[in-house]
Here is the input.
Amino acid sequence: MRVIVCENYEELSAKAAGLVAAQITLKPDCILGLATGSTPVGMYGNLIALCQKGDIDFSQVRAFNLDEYYPIKKDNEQSYCRFMYDNLFSKVNIDLKNTYIPNGETDDPVQECERYETLIRDSGGIDLQILGIGQNGHIGFNEPDATLNSRTHLTALTDSTIKANARFFDTYDEVPKHALTMGIATILRAKKIVLLASGANKSRVVSALLNGGINTSIPATMLKTHPDVVLICDRDAYSGARLGVDIGGTNIKFAVVDGGAVQYKSAIKTASSCEAILSDISSEIIRIMGEYHVKNVGIGTPGIIKKGLVTCANLPFDKTPLERLISEKTEVSVCVDNDANCAALGEITFGNTTDCSNIVLVTLGTGIGGGIIMDGQICRSNENIGEIGHMIIQAEGGRACPCGQTGCWERYCSMTALAESAEEYALANKDSILYHLYLENGNKLSGKLIFDAMDRGCPAANTVFDRFLNYLARGIESLANIFGPDAIVLAGGVTVQKDRLLEPLQKKLKKDVRVEISKLQGDAGALGAAML
Ligand code: F6R
Here is the structure.
């Protein structure tokens, strides 16, 4: 999607009219797809002026409108039929016989939709489709969760759309509750699409569109599957760049995201005092803000966040009001969340699961971390949610966990646990390659050494890893049973061994679960924080 950011609505209207005019000049008998609503009114004004000056000629143009309220009389002041007549058709030299709008007066809306869809298809298809965008991401009247393959159809308007449209009617009751609309598939068949967005009330949805993945809960994101879409928005609607910060025990990572792409990344060392960490982060934010038009900063931190206060065992944060302190120092709006939540948000927004609404991120590290996204939102019901590493996987005789329980998943499937299992097994198999590596490495094993031993055909190492996979599979099945996610994403050092991990793991799974390997790995936290 190409993005054109205009200074104001006037510039947006002129640019959009320029694209329509160019289309008519290139193909005088072109087919336009047109929208109503307040946004394209300025564009229509510009087109009228161009036509009246003789710069463009509508005489051979055919136009199909996106939608019409249902039921509504054509002469109702609020009908889209009337809107198009008043705002464009009556003021340019278009032949009214070449203008088509779904018939809101029909007794048979289903048949009317079929007729309209056929009419569009038989015309040869829309050359240029103009769209506005609703605050909930609707295009045409394809409301959230519209299906990708829908054709022209009768649809019920959501409450938020009815409320948004109420401004055009005298009372709420007068606002039609249904509409006939081109479907997403109809829209996506257009050869070229121009999407218009103006005003601060569109900035949230524009941000989701530009920075997020394809998600049926925001229908406009489906435009990302089309090869030729231009978004023209004004400064108020444009969400600006977002800066994500991921605080780790060793490094603090920064990432600037704009227009759905990573524009910049940097990292600094984590200082040892709370004051130094806050001052380092603030200075780096201020420096980056000097280069990028950053409107929001998100910060991911390990530890527990309760009422805005961060407490963390591995960092010098003890009920530290991180959000407030950094906002004060940088004078920008800051939002803080747990780092595992951020990483999950990063994965669903930029990783291998952008087509999902529900994922569980499982980070296999020193322990096991988890981030849960449901309906595109981070699950934050309380500060302990996502402690998936402490799910009991071995009910009897399980390994002791520092959390006080026994048999926790992270005592079998964290990288620490994998190394521990390998050490136990090496000691019990002193003729194994694994044991030799254990001795060579100062009586210690690591994930890397286990894989080295496997490369050298060590049966002991294969057994250790096979057991690890068994436990991993049982944990994943449990997560799938509890959350029913669209996918489970695995992250952490061991996942670089994708071939060794994924296929054997899938064979062990007794449930049909989609498992993905993290695409972003160490960058997921900062990218997700940017999206908070
Ligand atoms: C209009 C249409 C709608 C609007 C959208 C934005 O034909 O299909 O999708 O484009 O509701 O409306 P405005 O421009 O009024 O904010």
